Amino acid sequence: EADLESKLPLKGKKILITAGPTYEAIDPVRFIGNHSSGKMGFDIAKHASNLGAEVILVSGPTHLKLENSSIKLVSVVSAKEMYEACHQFFDTVDVAIAAAAVADYRPKFPATQKIKKTEVDLNIELEKTQDILASLGKIKKNQFLIGFALETENEIENAKLKIQKKNLDLIVLNSLQDEGAGFGKSTNKITFIDKDFNIEPMELKSKEAVAEDILNKVTKHFYE
Ligand code: CTP
Ligand code: CA
C-alpha cells in the first residue's frame, strides 16, 4: 500500500504538464516567441515520472531531450496546438501543471508567403490566443490544477488574481527580481500560493529542486 514514505508515491496518478515557449507564425519563416527553454516543465516531468506518475508532457519548441522513455512527449508549436493537445488529454488526468510560456498574442493574418521588405514600416495585427490554463480551470472536475505566474510588479496580488481567474488549486509565483532566477537560468525563486491564499516563499534553488518542491505539493494533495 502506497504512502508518503513510498518511493513511488504518485504511482497510478496521471499528470499533464505543459512546457516551453509557443511560436506564433508571422509568415513561413518568422514567428513571435519567447526565451523559455522548457527546462522547468521538463524537470517537473522527469521528477513526476521518477515518483511513479504516468506523465504526458506537451511541449513547445525546445532543444531539451528526454532520457526517460516512459514519458509521453507531445510536441507542439503554437498556442492553438498546445490548447488542442491539452484538451485531448485533460479528461483522463489527475493533475495538470502549466509550466509553458504560452504566447498571449499571435499574428491575426499570418502570411502564406515570406513577407517582402518594402520602403515603408510594417505593422502586424495581433489577436489574443486562448488561455489554455483558464480553459482547463473552467472544465476541471477532480483534477489538481497548478499554474505558474510570472510577475514583475504587485507579484502576490497579481498571482492571487490568476488563481481566481483560472480556477487553480495552487500557483507557483516566479520572481524575476533575483539575478539568478528565471528564463534561460538554471535556478528559480518561487513562492507558492494556494487557493486559500496561504503564501509560502521558497529559497532560490535549482529548477530540479523547484520541481521536487512542486511534486511534494502534489503528493501531499493526495495523502492529506
Ligand atoms: N497560460 C496558458 N495559456 C495562455 C497564457 C498563459 O495556459 N495563453 C498559463 C501559463 O502556462 C501559466 C499561467 O497561465 O501557468 C500564467 O501565465 P502568465 O503569462 O503569468 O499569465 P497570463 O494569464 O498570460 O497574464 P499576463 O501575461 O498578462 O501576466
Ligand atoms: Ca502571459
TrEMBL record:
The keyword Flavoprotein applies. Residues 10-220 form the DNA/pantothenate metabolism flavoprotein C-terminal domain. It catalyses: (R)-4'-phosphopantothenate + L-cysteine + CTP = N-[(R)-4-phosphopantothenoyl]-L-cysteine + CMP + diphosphate + H(+); N-[(R)-4-phosphopantothenoyl]-L-cysteine + H(+) = (R)-4'-phosphopantetheine + CO2. Its cofactor is FMN; Mg(2+). The keyword GTP-binding does not apply. Its EC number is 4.1.1.36, 6.3.2.5. GO terms for molecular function: phosphopantothenate--cysteine ligase activity; phosphopantothenoylcysteine decarboxylase activity. Pathway: Cofactor biosynthesis; coenzyme A biosynthesis; CoA from (R)-pantothenate: step 2/5; Cofactor biosynthesis; coenzyme A biosynthesis; CoA from (R)-pantothenate: step 3/5. Keywords: Decarboxylase, Flavoprotein, FMN, Ligase, Lyase, Magnesium, Metal-binding, Multifunctional enzyme. CTP binds at residues 104, 114, 148, 162, 166. In the N-terminal section; belongs to the HFCD (homo-oligomeric flavin containing Cys decarboxylase) superfamily. Catalyzes two steps in the biosynthesis of coenzyme A. In the first step cysteine is conjugated to 4'-phosphopantothenate to form 4-phosphopantothenoylcysteine, in the latter compound is decarboxylated to form 4'-phosphopantotheine. This is Coenzyme A biosynthesis bifunctional protein CoaBC. It comes from Flavobacterium qiangtangense. The gene is coaBC. The chain holds residues 180 to 403 of 403 of the full protein.
